[in-house]
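Re: that chain you flagged

S.,

Sorry for the slow reply, it's been a week of failed gels. I finally had a moment to sit down with the sequence you sent. For the record, here it is as I used it:
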Amino acid sequence: MPFTLILNNISRYIQLSEIEKKIFTGYLEAKTVKKKQLLLTEGEICKYSTFVTAGCLRGYTVDKGGVEHVLGFAPPDWWIADMYSLITQKPGTLYIEALEDSDVILLSKINQEKLYLEIPKFERFFRILTEKSLVANQQRIVDNMSLTAEERYSIFCKRYPTLIDHLPHKQIASYIGVTPEFFSRMRSEMLKKK
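Prediction finished late last night. Pasting the C-alpha cells below so you have them in one place:
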C-alpha cells in the first residue's frame, strides 16, 4: 500500500478506523520530484503539507547577498512546509527543494481543513505536529545563540542521524550556521580528537 509510511506516522499520535484511513488517503496526492526540483519558492503561498516517503527535501531561505540558509531537512517519515505561509496563506519566505530524486505525499491546506470537519481527531494530530515544530524551532534559535558550532553539529547528528554521511557538507554547514571551509576544519579537528 503506497500510504503505509504516512499512516504509520499518524498512528503515533491518533488511531484511525479503516473508514477514516480511506477518507484520509483519498485526500492525498503522491508525487515524484527530481533532484534540485523546487516544490516551493520564496514569494509563493504554501498550499501543501509535504510528507517524504523516499529521498530528502530541504527548506531554506536566501539572504540579500544570495547566501542560502538551511532551516531544515526532511528525510523519509518527516513532514515539511513553510509553516508561516501555510497557516496565514500569505506569500512565504522558504524554498523547498529536493536534494535527490524523492517521493512525497501532498496534503493540500483545503483538504486538511476538510479533514478537520470530517475526522476531528486530525486537528489533534496537526496541533501536535505544529507544537513539535514550534518547540524545535525555538530550541534551534536558542542553540544558535548560545552553543558553539561543534555543539550545533553534534545536535544536527542526533536530529538527523541518517543524513550525516548522506548530505553534501555545504548543506550541513549552512544548517549549523558556518561556512563550508570552517565546517571542514572543524570536522577534521573533531576526527583527530576521536
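What I noticed first: The helical segments are 4-11, 18-26, 83-88, 109-118, 121-146, 149-159, 169-176, 180-193.

Talk soon,
D.
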